[in-house]
Design goal:
191 residues, alpha/beta, Rossmann fold, 5-stranded parallel β-sheet, binds adenosine-5'-diphosphate
Length: 191
């Protein structure tokens, strides 16, 4: 199962990711985590990533694309993976597609976890983290929308986009996701 997971901060992507990787026994490729680990290990990528992350800016596409494609070649990705935080730009999505076409292993689905903005604001305010002040939250949500919109269009055109109603309970959301993935893998069960 090869999945890309899109969703704004506060949508519950973390919770659903954990369930998905356990259920399908696939690795969780979260680029934010990969970069933080690279920074901890002080690798060449980690040193570059540190400054971008501290400034809240995206890394140059070429660096992140290279990092992800190298990761995708590792043996644990043979049975699939959950990509989280990548792609974030159109060039990243296009590079991913080129890589996947060459390796003959297309994505199964792109999940977009959707939650109304007023609910996101409430959820994030409840967490009380430093970067969870209302003004900062609003900025992050605007940033997410701007970044993600072209990707949503790109994957809609490909027929890969699956909107998920993230307003339901965690169990109900997970059930929804599993149904959608089942149907994608086994289209005859549609009837
Ligand atoms: P968030 O806290 O917004 O969910 P992540 O943990 O996914 O962020 O990523 C943290 C930081 O890592 C980002 O702010 C960015 O600097 C960098 N990063 C992660 N993924 C990407 C990507 N696909 N392209 C460019 N930069 C990225």
């Amino acid at each position: 199962m090869r999945i890309v997971f899109l969703g704004p901060p506060g949508a519950g992507k973390g919770t659903q990711s954990q369930r998905l990787i356990q259920h399908f026994r696939i690795p969780h490729l979260a680029t934010g985590d990969m970069l933080r680990e690279a920074t901890r290990q002080n690798t060449a990528v980690g040193r570059v990533a540190h400054d971008y992350m501290a400034a809240g800016r995206l890394l140059p596409d070429s660096i992140i694309i290279d990092l992800v494609c190298r990761r995708l070649k590792e043996p644990d990705c043979l049975n699939g993976y959950l990509l989280d935080g990548f792609p974030r730009t159109l060039p990243q999505a296009e590079a991913l597609d080129r890589f996947l076409t060459e390796s003959g292993s297309p994505l199964d689905a792109v999940l977009e976890l959707k939650v109304d903005e007023d609910v996101l604001l409430q959820r994030l305010a409840g967490r009380g983290r430093d970067d969870d002040r209302p003004e900062v939250i609003r900025q992050r949500l605007i940033g997410y929308r701007e970044q993600t919109k072209p990707l949503v269009e790109y994957y809609t055109t490909q027929g890969k986009l699956e909107p998920i109603d993230g307003m339901a309970t965690p169990d109900a959301v997970f059930e929804q996701i599993c149904d959608i993935l089942d149907r994608r893998r086994n289209p005859s069960s549609l009837t």
